[in-house]
Amino acid sequence: MKFRTNPGGRGLRTVLSGLLVMLLACAAALFAGSGAHAETKDEKTLTIAVSQEVDSLSPFLAVRRITTALGRLSYDFLTNYDPKTGKTIPALAESWTTSEDGLTWTYKIRDTKWTDGQPITAEDARWTFDTMMKDEAAATANGNFVENFESVSAPDPRTLEVKLKAPQATMLALDVPILPKHKWEGVGDYSKFNNDQEFPIVGSGPWVISAYEVNQSITLTPNKDFWRGAPKFDKLVFRYIDDSDAQVEALKAGEVDFVSGLTPAQAKALESADNITVNKAKGKRFQAITLNPGAKLQDGTAFGDGNKALQDPVVREALVRTIDREAIYKTAYGGFGEANGGYIPSRYKDYHWEPEGDAVIGFDTAKAGELLEGAGWVKGSDGIRAKGGTKLSFRFNVHADNPQYVQAAEMMREWAKEAGIDLKVEPVSEVGALLDAGTYDILTTGWSVNPDPDYILGINRCSGLPAKVGGPYLSDAYYCNPEYDKLYAAQLAELDQPKRAEIVKQMQEQLYKDNVFVVWGYADQLEAFRSDTIASMQPQPDPGGNYDSQDGYWSWWSATPVGEEDEAAGDSGGSSSGLMLGGGAVALAALAAGVVFLRRRGATAADDRE
Amino acid sequence: MTELPPSDAVPHLDEVRDRGDAPRGTGGAAVALADRRGRDDDRLRRNAAYLGKRLLGAAVSLVAVIFTSFFLFRIIPGDPVRVMTHGRPVTIEQKEALAREFGLDKPMLEQFVSYLLGVLRFDFGESFQYNRPVLSMVGERLGPTLLLVGASLAVSAALGLWLGVQGAWKHGSTADRVNTGVALTLWSVPSFWLGLILIVVFASGLGWFPTSGMKTPGVTGFDMVLDVAHHMVLPLVTLVAVVYAQYLLVMRSSLLDEMGSDYLTTARAKGLRDTEVKRQHALPNALLPTTTLVFINIGFVLFGAVLVETVFSWPGLGKLFYEGLSVPDLPLVQGLFVIFSAAVILMNLVSDLIYPLIDPRVRP
Amino acid sequence: MTSAASTANASPRQLTWARRRRAVGTFWSSYRQNRAGLFGLAVLAVFVLSALLVPWIVGEEALSVTRPPGEPLQPPSGEFWLGTDRSGRSVLDLILWGSRVSLTVGFAATFISIALGSLIGILAGHFSGWMSGLLLRITDWFLVMPTLVLAVALAAVLGRSLSTIVIAIGVTSWPTTARLVRAQTLAVEARPYIERARALGGGHWHVMTRHVLPNVMPIVLAQTTLMVAGAILTESTVAFLGLGDPTTPSWGSTIQAARDTGAVSSGMWWYILPPGIAIALVALAFTLCGRAIEAVLNPRLRSR
């Protein structure tokens, strides 16, 4: 069918005029909009794209990444983590001591002020912990930190004393925002209080939350009196952009200055974009699968309908041998990641362990076949191995919202088939229900690991198993090994760091050998920022670290605007940027930005080569 | 229940009402107003009965929706507590406390009764994720959604009607064919895909429009109005592009119908000028079905905006609903479901009630 | 052609068939005059052919993710006309395989929807009283339910697979058909010959299957083609919302995979454009066919 066009026809004019009206409307809005953008340029604003909505601005309730990060920025914690090494350093607590038996911890509280000018005292810290211990709602987000607390007291305004029920090695990793008692004690019901009625929010961190527009943006202003020094940008805005592509487009258009959670393809494409620097940080998360070893309750009662074959260690080992970790990170993660079977990511050098030599259970489908053959699993006519009526056919439930998991799962299905194992890849929105009922064979999983490994190790204890079917369960592997539990208790009580690290490594080796919790490796954290806005930022760890979701407030606190880097670094480019700021010449600014960009490009390229 | 003639007063509209997310058909198939041309005797009694029946029907639908909203989302497998706590250090006690707080430890029947009592007081409970009353969250986001949906309805109705009228006047002409062709093509395009392409071309490519969001943080006053308008262009164009076709087609075909009817021939025979006949007789009559369609559509465009809101990060209701589903944040999704469905029911009711008032042929 | 002489002594069965052949002939000759309809039909023919022949044209090994023919995310070249996807498979091959999946989904969902809709529509139109009232209520109830929500809930309950999507679309999209069919049934049953058939002792079953059904079939046919377009679009929407089956190469899940990869913002137009265009083309083709059929069946519309 052809539409004959008739340029002179009256009808076509109708069509054109229709389009014209729409275009005019757009154009009007366009120019109007650009007018609106013209102002607010003299203020240095750092805009971060975020995809999560705010759940609550109350640190007692906030559990999402975005809001826990906001808590970090606006309230100081007792301790912090060094940006370079990740080691514990003083924060609100200037120093601390432990009693002989390890049951009493005494913190000396720094003499500094809340953003409303009131002094911060040990009583504020005592009140915060005490409220979390006594009020169920206040324990919603961070109750786990005070689980082992016997009592908290503040003998004087500078001293905080915590008494424990049992020794614990994590007392310097209490990631709890200390709240101003004078603002909070009047709150009636903590489960209903979202801390979003009165702005700016009184806090003690480097940034002050000064405005919040639901589902659109959160604006922070610097705490000029912050004891570690005020942030350098005049404004920090977290802007809500849901779609990852839209985030990248906004970065390219200069609407935001920082984007995280890039896909490998986006990172590659942005590397060649103007005025944008891509950062590839070693991952904090591991990606893994768990094989159902037979779901059990704490009392040993088996439940669920996991394929019995997976209870056989040989089958599990054979299955693991069909996984080509290198290929997964090369293809699904675009080369941005590290294939590694260790439970604690390699960025945590002190605690990371990985198999070496003969201990490696590596990719070898032929060997997998031999192992199965030797154990009596014989191929049937359909190419799938079976023994005594049990088939090596497994349901493989994959988080459908994670494209890399899906891609890896499809690859694993093809490899497993070579060894005579049938994987039925079933993408699901949520594995929780399957897990709680024990009705799965293989699941994908991934956990973010903190600098202190205690929690991530603790989830795999036998005591973590559910007490009844459907009851609360922390982990997702139904792993239970008394040896592992003994090691766990030993590391928790060990206050000598190198010795503790040694035990932690033994635990990882045990996990690796058991092939229940099978780690693939650690995907890089891919981020990008506008190098014509941000001159420099502090990564964690340094070098090679990330800017987003740090343990600490380092990146946004240290971020230096382009044109002010001379104050920080004192290099020769200073005079020209001072001049251009004084004159306000837009062309010069662009030029300077270009120069800075080129210099930074050179620098990052050099970094990449290391 | 007895059958009254106008029980589906606008069947040829039903088939086009679902645009945005649901199966659809183009205008046409005027399946007949034939079987429902009522007789005029005892009109008052019939009117009352008609009104009563419509209201009753709407009430029954609403009750059904309220029941469905509760049970539908409870059959979705998924444990809100687990989803909300996954990946962070929590203790078993914290999880149990959450389940208690959500009321998930109570028997289903008890949960249902308290939900029902709440709904009667317009209280949909508190969102699991946001610790806030569902109703106030809806209040916050209703504005942006209404703005986008309202504007797109206005633009697409205006555009569709106007092009439809032009098409019918000059039916068979090149312009008519091009118009219909373009409309049908845009209508066949997945809206989210169109949105993405528009972002790439007009936002990041040409830089004419912002890529997403509703406003630039910190802009106030009249500038804010302009800023919002600027942000709204692309989402608006996307929604209009996929919606206006049905107005065009319905307008065009009802006008063609009218122009073929006897009374127009009579009017012409009486010596009235052709344009006058069209303006004064055909047009008003042909406007009726399209007007009704616009009403019926509000509810569905409201829900269809989910996709466009997601693509453009428009801070409206749609995204909220979708995020609630993945948890599932039961109070939130229940509340939104009831509100969306109630909007559809209300609009159906309105169109049912106004149709016989404005169309002399469809009278109870 | 059947001559008058041969029909004179033909059996009733043959007569019926002859009449039907003639009807199809007439139908085709007026359909042929609708150029848009022919265009739609031609496009459909191309897609249906590729869907049927794809196993022989490209073969199943083209879908392997561990032994892909190319490197991931390559732009179009002489070897890969539409470039490669995130695993290194040819996007063109994926689109061809996708036509199979998407058309299957479209037809299967439409079949469920049309069958349900026709059944309920005829029953509601034929019977009066409580039965009709109940069916109408159910229809109205489904009509006000947001289709997507139901589809999403069903997808969550039944697990993610093509059949789930088919069922979800089919189960949620029938009310439109039901109302159309009911209206037509009412119109048909008002005709005098139905009364004659009743008077001659024809039961409900007889009236519904012999008189009503053949008369509503044409309108159902038009509705069917329109609905396939809708179903294919809905499939892509469900995939967009992240509820599709990402392991099956439908057009919807290819778009979704492209989005997940970040193709939109990485300038990989060859990954995101083709599946969208394929969806739009097929949806348009079905719509054009549907309109053409409508125009043929309803002479009043023919001028449109």
TrEMBL record, chain A:
Originating organism: Knoellia flava
GO CC terms, sorted: ATP-binding cassette (ABC) transporter complex; cell envelope; periplasmic space
Entry keyword annotation includes Secreted: no
Protein name: ABC transporter substrate-binding protein
PROSITE patterns: PROKAR_LIPOPROTEIN
Repressor among keywords: no
Subcellular location: Cell envelope
Superkingdom of the organism of origin: Bacteria
Pfam families: SBP_bac_5
GO terms assigned for molecular function: peptide transmembrane transporter activity
Automatic annotation (TrEMBL), chain B:
Keywords tagged on the record: Cell membrane, Membrane, Transmembrane, Transmembrane helix, Transport
Full protein name: ABC transporter permease
GO cellular component: plasma membrane
Biased composition (Basic and acidic residues): 11-22
Transmembrane segments: 55-76, 145-165, 186-209, 229-250, 286-312, 332-358
Domain of life: Bacteria
Renumbered residue ranges of the record's region Disordered: 1-30
Membrane association type: Multi-pass membrane protein
Gene3D superfamilies on file: MetI-like
Stored InterPro entries: BPD_transp_1_N, MetI-like, MetI-like_sf
Domain ABC transmembrane type-1: 142-355
Pfam family, one: BPD_transp_1_N
Compartment(s) of residence: Cell membrane
Entries under CDD domains matching the protein: TM_PBP2 (cd06261)
Family that this chain belongs to: Belongs to the binding-protein-dependent transport system permease family.
UniProt GO BP: transmembrane transport
TrEMBL record, chain C:
Signal peptide start and end residues: none
Organism superkingdom: Bacteria
Cellular localization per UniProt: Cell membrane
PROSITE patterns per UniProt: ABC_TM1
Entry-linked InterPro entries: BP-dependent_transpt_permease, MetI-like, MetI-like_sf, OppC_N
Domain ABC transmembrane type-1: 99-290
Record flagged with keyword Mitochondrion: no
Keywords: Cell membrane, Membrane, Transmembrane, Transmembrane helix, Transport
GO biological process, one term: transmembrane transport
Subcellular location, principal: membrane
Transmembrane segments: 38-58, 101-122, 134-156, 162-181, 219-243, 268-293
UniProt key word Transmembrane: yes
CDD domains linked to this entry: TM_PBP2
Topology term for the membrane: Multi-pass membrane protein
CC terms in the record's Gene Ontology section: plasma membrane
PANTHER family cross-referenced by the UniProt entry: D,D-DIPEPTIDE TRANSPORT SYSTEM PERMEASE PROTEIN DDPC-RELATED, OLIGOPEPTIDE TRANSPORT SYSTEM PERMEASE PROTEIN APPC
Protein family per UniProt: Belongs to the binding-protein-dependent transport system permease family.
Identification of the protein by name: ABC transporter permease
